[in-house]
């Protein structure tokens, strides 16, 4: 399979390994958006959150929690963002499920833009659509 993360998992491509066990690999992200930016991925290939087996997902998130605490403490981060992009439309560029652990520091230049659109939407309509209910 032509998957760059599978090649990293199989050690065909080198990486800086933060953590490894039989089910999960965590490596330093090549981009280092912030100091210590880490990617956590399942060893069994799955494209995204829709495809990953629930059991693999739950195990992986346990490791994400453990590493988030370790990274925050040992790198003296001010905080941690946990990010997972699914589909090109959400910014996913590598089609092997992964979670970004992004440690945050003062003036680190990392941005998540969140604009308040609450006045633009009917929240009951949103709820009905999410739950596939007809409007009353
Ligand atoms: P995303 O856009 O959520 O699919 O994130 C993919 C990330 O993978 C991106 O931050 C850069 C990182 N990345 C891509 N190729 C490599 C690689 O060969 N090695 C490492 N360590 N990271 C990579």
Structural notes for this entry:
The protein is an alpha+beta fold and 136 residues long. It has a single domain, classed as HIT family, subunit A (2-Layer Sandwich). It is 26% helix and 18% strand. The chain is built from three helices and five strands; from the N terminus they run αβββαββα. The chain has a five-stranded antiparallel beta sheet with strand order 1-2-3-5-4, covered by helices on one side. Strand 1 (17-20) and strand 2 (24-28) form a beta hairpin. The longest helix has 21 residues, at 54-74. The radius of gyration is 18 Å and the shape is globular. It starts with a helix and ends in a 6-residue tail after the last helix. The model has no long low-confidence stretch (mean pLDDT 96). Bound molecules: 2'-deoxyguanosine-5'-monophosphate. Residues 4, 13, 15, 27-31, 39, 85, 91-94 line the site of 2'-deoxyguanosine-5'-monophosphate.
Question: What are the defining features of this structure?
Answer:
five-stranded antiparallel sheet, binds 2'-deoxyguanosine-5'-monophosphate, 18% strand, 136 residues, alpha+beta, globular, HIT family, subunit A
Write the topology of this structure.
Layout: H1 4-9, E1 17-20, E2 24-28, E3 38-42, H2 54-74, E4 79-83, E5 99-104, H3 123-130
The chain binds 2'-deoxyguanosine-5'-monophosphate.
